[in-house]
Known about the structure:
Elements: E1 6-14, H1 22-31, E2 35-45, E3 51-55, H2 79-87, E4 93-102, H3 106-114, H4 127-136
Antiparallel strand pairs: 1-4, 2-3, 2-4
Amino acid sequence: MTIGPVEYILVEFPENRFTGEIVPALAELIASRIVRLIDAVFITKDEAGIVLYEEYDAAEIGDGFGFADLEGEVGLFNEEDIATAAASLAPNSSALLLVWEDLWAAPLAGAIRRAGGQLLDGGRIPHSLVVAALEHD
């Protein structure tokens, strides 16, 4: 089985202003087979710094934001991963920790592996830098 690149993001919502608006966008990516959701955890940190989290589970979650409708798997993150993510949150905030496979890149990833290539490094260029560079040209 060819597996595409797997990546994660941690999105913070200051003052717990999570509206769920990103859920339909994520659902569209999943339905279009652009990504495969591997894990999702919703984390909250209160003003005293107490952390609570709920791991995505389509069978159990009933949050009203549409997570129950997402097709995906559960189980990649462990307690240490969640604690590390929570440590970066400001008090009185929430976050969504997501990991997905980039299905669109699986054919390229397979070709690289079959050719004996190894990915040495990768990363994301911040949105603000890309916008600034494109506006400069």
